[in-house]
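Database export, one record per block. Field names are fixed; values are copied verbatim from the stored entry.
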Amino acid sequence: MTTIAYRDGVMAGDSRAYSGNRAPIGNKVKVERLRDGTLLGVSSTVPGGAETVRRWWDDRELDLPSSFSLLAAKPNGDVYYASDTPHLSGPLRAPFFAIGSGNELALGAMEMGAAAVEAVRAAAKHDPWTGLPIYAVRHDAAARWRVDR
């Protein structure tokens, strides 16, 4: 229930948070840059699921939630994907990637030349499960930034 997009070293994600999959309950950050420069984006329909997946990334012994999607982009260009399983697919090669409920909208926008942030913005206009603000991270910058529009 989100949109996370990756292109040209930038990962962007919306921030709409839901109580399970029904009522919006506020906003949360869904993308982050790890110490090694890996960009990690996680979505889950299970409350607290994304946070659990993030902890699992550091400690593969933890149990994963029943429903999640993960997109991880390494600084060297390797991209990995997982959905509802601890088994990562990759390294994947493509000019851009998107996961979540608005992934088709974001992929279409990037096919037409949009950057990751603009792709998530396009998804937020047309996917009811994707909402502003957008947060973004880069491989080469430790700080995350918020896009308000």
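Remark 1: The two ends are 20 Å apart (CA to CA).
Remark 2: Helices lie at 49-58, 103-111, 116-126.
End of record.
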